[in-house]
Structure formats: structure tokens, C-alpha cells
Amino acid sequence: MSVDMSSQASDSNEEDFEEEDNEGAEEEDQGDMTYYYEGVAGDVEQAEPDTFDPEEYQFMCLTYRESQRLLTEEVNHVSSSLKVSPAVAKLVLVHFHWQVSQIIDRYKSNSSQLLCEAQVQPITTCRSLTAVASLQCGVCLQFVRRDALLSLPCQHSFCKSCWEQHCTVLVKDGIGVESFTRVIYSGISCMAQDCSLQMPEDFVLPLLPSEELKDKYRRYLFRDYVESHFQLQLCPGADCPIVIKVQEPRARRVQCSRCNEVFCFKCRQMYHAPTDCATIRKWLTKCADDSETANYISAHTKDCPKCNICIEKNGGCNHMQCSKCKHDFCWMCLGDWKTHGSEYYECSRYKENPDIVNQSQQAQAREALKKYLFYFERWENHNKSLQLEAQTYQRIQEKIHERVMNNLGTWIDWQYMQNAAKLLAKCRYTLQYTYPYAYYMESGPRKKLFEYQQAQLEAEIENLSWKVERADSYERVEGELNATDRGGL
């Protein structure tokens, strides 16, 4: 969900690609959230008051044409420096994540090793085939003339028909070379057994029988080039062709200028600070695996702890007031809100059983499930609160517009309500992602400190949420803004 509650809009990616194409005819690490705010203190000292944002991250949104131009410049540079064809240069760049300066330095040091590591040059070549007039294809076992055989630098020769079928099937079925984290289509490997030499695009394209397949292959190539580039990332928005470019790749918040999608640059998942990329992947996988187990906590209703009437949560705030008996209580723990303030942090802190290691496996399993459900319930609750508060934000916008149109103040008079709602969304979004982080933290002083800070943020957010939901109900008095209009904001 976008923090600023902006909507998404998208067009067909394929149409954009084809239009531009006709006109123009890495392993993931574990993120860097541990050092997310490293150096912030020094930055604050240098920044002007009220201008520094520790989450600020410089990035650019590139169109297909702009990103293609950027890639072409780097390909030409490497091609001329390594004295190889542009198609081979692309394979080298993909393998080394487009680290141009490192590629050139390594080539100067040991050119053969670099090309072998990129799988564009074999370590050893097969016997020479020039003396043989007629040879057998290694796949179909048919004897054909030597000029009807094709081979890569590894000298594994196969007839053109077999090469065509090989490339056609792989491109049509969308099957590429498996890497540690993704599928790479930019280099289809040799057909010979145990040969990993990659086929450059100028070898593959003439073997594809139709323009449709060639276009599909070019789209695969472009996606691979972008995804393997250490400074580029495709926008994960639906059918969005925008490419995000950064100077230094980090797990930071970026937003597409076209579809307004907000995501983490490093892993392309929803933005998840302070949780790192590896942890959020584990958490989301666990939530998907245990979705049926957690279904019972997805209900939107609970009973009032005083009069037992069924209550539905229709706002983001956890400070609930029963519509029947007016009892104030906490949605999460059902405790009395009057005595909740001083012990609020207990709501967000899981109390582990110190003696659980000495109990049975069944007891340990129940405790593990209990712990997971504790954190999942709070994670899910903040996600639902975000959705409900997004509706509140829209109502506030409508109220402001209505009041301005009725001459009940100016936009500036009512701006505080909009700013408060935006700040609430940003803070709650961050708070939501503290729970996966806390779930995987080891018990100890560091976790206690984290939970204390988490609780302070939670208390402030609930206080702000309570006020935001009620601020737009205040009216002007005798044509002037009353001090109570802000509702404490």
C-alpha cells in the first residue's frame, strides 16, 4: 500500500516496448537495514533546521527509451574496451551486474579468465573440425555438410535445424538459465551436455522463426539487462514500463513517477523499513504458509469487555469506545483504556516463557504458534488500520473541499488536518513493519530497547489516530476558527 494513499494507474508494458523498439530498431543480498541510519547524526548537523529527512533517497525514473540509451552506452564502452562484439559485451555485463569499471580492470589483469568466468569463452576448446568435410549433428545424429553446422566458441557443432528448435522452445516456453535468485534469458546455453557457454543475442535472433518470437526474446533481454544492473530496477507496478535508477543501490523507499507504486529498491517488495529485505521475505513466506492457521484472527469484530456487545472496528485507531455503554478499551488486549497509558507498551511486547525449552515438543510447538500469532495479529491490525485511515483521509479531503467552497476558511486553515493524516499513515506504515523485525530478533537487552521504542511510537500513533478521526467533526464558531477545531492536533 502506498504510504501517501495515492492511486495506481498503468498502461500496457508490451505496447510501450514495441513502440519504442520499432522507433529505436544479480544475486540479492540480505539488505542493509542494520545500517539504515548510519551517519544520520552528521547529516543532521549539516542540514538546515526542519529540512533533513533520514529516509530521503535520490533516484530517477527512466522511460524505456532513456534506460535503453543508458544500457547501449555502457555496452559500447565495454565492447570497445574488451574488443568483443556488443552481443558478447552484454553477456559479460549481465554476469558482472554492469560494473563497468571493475570489468575493464579485471580484463586488463587477466582477459581470458574474465571471459571464461562470464561463460562467453570456453576454458578449453574441442578438437579442430576444419579438416572434416561431412560431420554428424550431435543431437539428431544426421550427417550434414560442415557449412550446415553451427557452433559457439566451444566448437560443439549442431545442425541449424536443431539450433532453431532449441532456441524456439526455450523462448516460447519462457525457459532460461537458472541462477541463484532468478531466471536469466539473456544467455541461452549451448546444447552440448555439461557445456555452460552462453549464446549471444546475435546468434539466437537469426534462429527464431517469427517476428513474434524475436520480439518476445527482446523483451526478455531488456528485462534481464535491467534486473542484472546494480543501479537499475523495474517498477513492480502492474504493466508499468518505468525503470528506477539510483547512484548507490540500497534498501530504500522509491516511488514510480508514472503509477505511484512505492517499493523497496533492493528487493522490489513493499517498502519495509526497519525490517531488512531477507527478514521481510521470510516473514511474508511464513504468513503465506500459515495463512489458514491465522484465519481466525482476521475477523473484524470483538465483544465489548464490559457489556459484551459485538463491536466492529471501523477506524484505524486501537482506542475503542463502545457505542452502547461508552466503555473505552484497547482493541488489541481489551484492557481498560483509562489505565492503559502507563502500561501501553505491554500490548506490543511478547512475553516469552523462559522455561519453554524444558517442556515437551508439543508445548514448544504451541508456544511457537502463540508467538507467531501475537506478532501476526499486530502486523495485520496495522495493515487494516492503514486501509481504514486511508478512507478517513479521503473524507478529510472532501470535508476540506466542502468547507472551502462554503467560505468556511481557506485551504491553509484546514491544512493541519491533511498533514496530520499523511503523517499518521507514514508512521503507522513504519510501525507495521517493526513487528516482523521484532519477531525474528533474539531475546536480550537490544530487543528490550527496540520494544520500548516500538511501544512509544505505538502510543503516539494511537493518540494521533484518535484525534485525526475526530478532528474533522469540529465546526467553526461565529466565522472564526475555534481553538478546539484542531482536536489537539
TrEMBL record:
A GO term for molecular function: ubiquitin protein ligase activity
Q: Which reaction does it catalyse?
A: [E2 ubiquitin-conjugating enzyme]-S-ubiquitinyl-L-cysteine + [acceptor protein]-L-lysine = [E2 ubiquitin-conjugating enzyme]-L-cysteine + [acceptor protein]-N(6)-ubiquitinyl-L-lysine
Question: Gene3D superfamilies under this entry?
Answer: 1.20.120.1750, 2.20.25.20, Zinc/RING finger domain, C3HC4 (zinc finger) (3.30.40.10)
Q: Where in the cell is it found?
A: Cytoplasm; Nucleus
For biological process, the GO terms are: protein ubiquitination; ubiquitin-dependent protein catabolic process
Q: Where is this region: Disordered?
A: 1-36
Which pathway is it part of? Answer: Protein modification; protein ubiquitination
Q: Where is the RING-type domain?
A: 133-351, 307-347
Return the EC number.
2.3.2.31
Broadest EC class assigned to this enzyme: transferase
Q: What is this protein called?
A: E3 ubiquitin-protein ligase ARIH2
Say which species the protein is native to.
Answer: Hemibagrus guttatus
